[in-house]
Amino acid sequence: MYFSEHNKKGWRLLGVPFIFAIFLLAVPIATMTTLSFWTQDYLTLIKTITLDNYKQAWFQPVFQTLFARSLIISLTVTFITILFAFPIAYYISFYGGKRKALWLFLITIPFWTSYLLRMFLWKVILGYNGVLNSFFEWLGVITEPLTFLLYNSNAVVLALVHGWAPFAILPIFVSLEKIDRSLLEASNDLGDNNLSQFFRIILPLSMPGVIGAVLIIFIPCIGDYITPKLVGGPEGLMIANMIQVQFSKANNAPLAAALSVTSLLIVGIISLLFVFLNRKYLRNY
Amino acid sequence: MKKSNKIFKVIVIFFLVFLYAPALLLPIFSFNNSKVISFPLSGFSTIWFEELLYENTLHNALFNSLLIAISSTILATILGTLVARASTRYIFYGKRISITFILVPLILPEIILGVCLLTVLIQLGLDLNLWSVVLGHTLLITPFSTLIMVSAFNNLDISLEEASLDLGMSSFQTFRIIILPMVSPGLISSLLIGFVISLDEFIIAFFLTGVEPTLPVYIWSQFRFPAKLPSTMALGTILLIVSLILVSLFEYFRRRMELYNYYSVGLDQK
Amino acid sequence: MNKKNIRNPEKIVDLISIKKSFDKIIAVNNVSLGIKEGEFFSLLGPSGCGKTTLLRIIAGFEKPENGDVFINGKNVNSVEPNNRPTNMVFQNYAIFPHLNVSENVGYGLRNTSLNKDEIAQKIEEALNLVGLEGYHKRASSALSGGQRQRVALARALILKPRVLLLDEPLSALDKNLREQMQFELRQLQKSVGITFVLVTHDQTEALTMSDRVGVMFNGKVDQVASPEEIYNKPQTKRVASFIGNMNFFETQYLEKKSKTISVSHKDLGNIKLLKSNIFGVDKSKLTIGIRPENFKINNKNGKKQPKSFNAKVVEKSFMGDTMLYGINLRENDHHTYRISISDIKNTPSPNIGEEISVYFQEDDIVAYYEE
After folding, report:
1. Searching chain B, which residue's CA lies closest to the CA of residue C59?
2. In chain C, what are the domains?
């Protein structure tokens, strides 16, 4: 009786949001998946089930290159961001003193300012007549503008690292905060020096935060549209740009759907892989 | 120990500079009296801000964005509050899986959300308009609202509600006098964050907006015209200041929420 | 009127065959219990025994699956908590953090017809009653643990409930404050004359404060009696071992007479038990219980008391007002029994390893039929 009473009250509250999510999430994903098995001839949909879109998406070199590049760029961004974020989270957690909240606030503010503008600013900074080139010319360091700055994968990586680093710090910080400080004293007491303590205690115990940060950065990066479009040039475009092109200019919505489903699968598989790694870590410690 | 401390401090400061430097360009170049964005600076001017006053498309886009942000934020906060209340207060069949499902937009790349929603709307033969963006943004913001409201309700000790009922108040009075004031910092946080997310969201709006641009879609279209750069920077400066104010408010209310938690439970469970 | 709805008016709270379970775990199992008007009643038991659930059933926060709750002679099964003549002091006090002391204390008066001045007057009286004069405008966040408890008390008492329910109200306080509040709560109850029902897992608290105590285990009430009776004549073995310390000995059944039953124990010898001290359903096996303070030590050279036995001291600890000994009865039996000596001066003080002679009075012994 206790349970059924809760059941009734719980579902009375959850009903509306749940139906909302069914109609705006489950139905759309199902529709998109269905669409990915159809084909389109100019403006008419041919509703025969076929794997043609997936054959194209998976085996045509254009798409293979884009998927590979998206994957490499987002993994690189994730790696660099974590490399940056960890010492910062570590510093705030261990040496932040009373100003921990202030530090965190300072670091997260930029995240809430317009993403579009922040990415665009990198175009302004790195461009041929951009801030960096004009600044160096003004200083007399260079005579000709540097051209390797903008419109390549590196520019995309740089901009994305800048865009997502603040968000990587939070989960790592939280997991570092959770480490009982007496564990560190115990490890020192048992003969660890600071370095061995870091690898034997701090790093393993903060792993859940690191995995969280990885997911938080990797997922939006692999699907990012704005950054590659703004600073990537033709050599830095990613899969999201292709999905958009197929949807609009190329008028091939089924192929766009197949590309989307494939991206979703990649995101899913890699996320599960990291979650699995995390489980393994948690089991060991 | 002392030395490593210093190395870390250098890294942190370098990082903060890296983080803030690009954003600082916005105010610098929006007050710069030149059509090109480059050094050296040529002089102080407010003409780029004045130019914004005469951009009708911008005003329309701003109006659209505000309309979308307000509607989707309120909708998402209502939905998120319902989910959070159910999640923190009741045990029921399918709780975990249904709530996880509602939180899924958090881990979906936005482009996929956009594509999915667009596919359905096209298949249903519906017109794209501002309301399709409102639905998309509500879907996107609901998980954030849910998480904020879950922590707000977690801070609301159930015995406070029971005490109120016990002292003779009806459920409605309890809601009005106890629950609402106590979760209001959470509600305000949720509204602020939702507003900022919606105002800033580009890709879903880009896919779903049809002919009416939102503010980010408008800004995106301006990137093509080098002549519009300085006034876009000026617009960016204004947006930067608005977000700063909203995020500071958010931080203020988040701390109020923690304060309640500390006083209602923290002291007793020592 | 339905006969079922009228109850003995002497019992302010009357619980009839109450049953309540959570997810197949039975929290309260067929409990019937009457609480008298004006008494200080405690529900005592280990955590998870269902005492808090029972209290919440009286308050109306939980609905029993079976049984009836009568308050002041009226069946309140379908009455919501806000319409019951009960008020509660919560374990964590549930002080509304966004309201100040006055607003908290006067909270329940909002729905009454009193005007502003009358409300202010009542708040004043309530604050005086709990010793918080002049705290009206104090923010609830600026209160200490003890003050929060007083606010919670004032807030509940201001409504003049027929029954005040207290859910472990002292568990959050430190030891000294707890002892002081035990005394004050008792005084307060006597002065306001309201029935108090207290839930606690602390036996000292229950025994020192209450007129009557109900001891609960696993959703059942084992015994309802005065503190003295609970201590001296615990009716079940688990009550006996939960309240204070008790040494148990298994015995052999010898013979039954009109007022006594004789049993024998291999070390204690033959023992005559008063029938009024024997509890449980008649079986052939009896376990007897003797409190540590009911054992005395024979003087070495003096005359031995009639009921004496030999033992070896294996533990000894000085507690200030008492001396505690642990004894073994045989060389190969390592079960340790306890002796507590309060008259330290006039009792021999054997050391660990010494052989001693211990005696007891047969009338002090309680006994239980083995289930």
Report:
1. B166
2. 3-240 (3.40.50.300), 245-369 (2.40.50.100)
